UniProtKB/TrEMBL annotation:
CDD domains: CAP_ED. It comes from the Bacteria. It comes from Sphingobium naphthae. This is Crp/Fnr family transcriptional regulator. The keyword Hydrolase does not apply. PROSITE patterns: HTH_CRP_2.
């Protein structure tokens, strides 16, 4: 019988792609104390103003991060999947500035901030890996800002689809790859800064142009390079940058 995967395996997998981690480093990460909780679709993982007394790491599922403006409008500013940091391990904790809401069933681990800070101070490779992951997150956030700037609707939606593909296929997209869309058209509109009507019209146009195929909630990408070219998608933040990785060749 196959033993169950260690709880923090998604974290180790993510950090191992950011810096070389020894077997001892990986074992130390897996041994971190943590509490697991499950969040149902539509429920909040984090609410604005929450004080989280630790470091939250997403283990499974898809969630989105959003803010609510004074007029009540929702602005989705990022997506989260397995291995993502949902906050920084600050001590004392700072109140959350955002809402994080589950789109699918989500599992989250809460690691005491002092535990991960002590581990990263004592193990340089783990510290470098965490810094590498934070740098990748910042790059992705800058791409989101660019995506809702002066870009046409097709490019905005193409970028979002590219990100969802990378989250579903850690090895990267390929011709014929597919995803089950975890978002409604209302949520796509809130993530791309266009209207729901425009989202519907743009998706139909992309399908008519052969850029995507749709089967209910499944999106198939016939030509991955075409989609990434339209999106101006840069895969660098999504892939490991260790010497010898395919991304380095």
């Amino acid at each position: 019988m196959t033993p169950p995967e260690p709880l923090l395996a998604p974290l180790v997998a993510r950090l191992s792609g950011r810096a070389p981690l020894s077997a001892q480093d990986q074992a130390a990460l897996l041994a971190l104390p943590c509490q697991e909780r499950s969040v149902e679709p539509g429920a909040y993982v984090v609410k604005e103003g929450d004080l989280t007394p630790g470091w939250q790491v997403q283990l499974a599922g898809v969630a989105h991060r959003h803010r609510i403006s004074a007029d009540g409008a929702r602005h989705i500013v990022g997506m989260h999947g397995a291995g993502d940091f949902l906050n920084l391990p600050l001590s004392p904790p700072a109140p959350s500035e955002d809402f994080i809401q589950a789109l699918t069933p989500v599992r989250v681990a809460l690691v005491p901030a002092d535990a991960i800070l002590a581990l990263s101070h004592g193990r340089l490779s783990i510290f470098k890996a965490i810094c590498g992951e934070i740098a990748a997150d910042l790059s992705i956030y800058r791409a989101w800002i660019s995506n809702v700037g002066r870009r046409e609707a097709r490019a905005r939606i193409a970028y979002l689809l590219c990100e969802l593909v990378m989250r579903s296929h850690p090895g990267g997209g390929s011709d014929g790859c597919s995803i089950t869309l975890p978002m409604s058209q209302v949520e796509i509109a809130d993530a791309t800064g266009i209207t729901t009507v425009h989202v519907n019209r743009t998706l139909r146009a992309m399908e008519a142009q052969g850029i995507i195929r749709r089967q209910r909630r499944d999106i198939i990408v016939p030509d991955w390079r075409v989609l990434t070219r339209i999106a101006e998608f840069r895969p660098a933040p999504w892939v490991s940058r260790l010497p010898g990785d395919p991304s380095d060749r």
